[in-house]
């Protein structure tokens, strides 16, 4: 699993960002940024979940789901360009927000922090390439499994439960309100295809997707589908 931007910073760089930024609380459904605008703010997420999405001719495509420690707006901070996507709070979000120019000043004063931003960009490029590869040849199971692993890694909480045979087993609970339709929008397929994959082996007994939570009982099955074993 990738290291979030915040965790990759040195203690001094984190303190400098705290001093330069303003803490904000964002309600569910509110936008941190909107596509095609020139607002020049950078957000460091401290709690909650945010989805990054674009609208193309009335169709929604989800690019990512970000969580605590992640960075939002770094591309526009680097090139002063127009926002390339919408960023919408899925839950109550706590974040640090600062103007792009102030963010760049913190990076200039703490050169090592630039590598934390570079790691964010590299990870997103790698993820984008993996998703492209899974389209050729078409491999929807791999795409969906990689999205579910990302959610579990970013938002998952281990929970001890009683298994079907009465023995204790550990599952991962993901408290993020993401629907099967949105999983499809993120993985590049329709809701019906998502439902088919979830209902088939090997995920049928190892995963439950509800509207407000995902329960992963077999991370191994997800890793195998995603080609990570």
From TrEMBL:
Membrane-spanning regions, if any? Answer: none
Name any GO cellular component annotation.
cytosol
Domain annotation Cyclic nucleotide-binding: ranges: 5-107
SMART domains the UniProt entry points to: cNMP (SM00100)
Write one Pfam family the protein is assigned to: cNMP_binding
UniProt xrefs under InterPro entries: cNMP-bd_dom, cNMP-bd_dom_sf, Env_Response_Regulators, HTH_CRP, RmlC-like_jellyroll, WH-like_DNA-bd_sf, WH_DNA-bd_sf
Keyword vocabulary terms for this entry: DNA-binding, Transcription, Transcription regulation
The GO terms this record gives for MF are: DNA binding; DNA-binding transcription factor activity
Protein name according to UniProt: Crp/Fnr family transcriptional regulator
- Organism the protein comes from: Actinomadura geliboluensis
Query: What is the phylogenetic placement of the source species in the record?
Result: Bacteria, Bacillati, Actinomycetota, Actinomycetes, Streptosporangiales
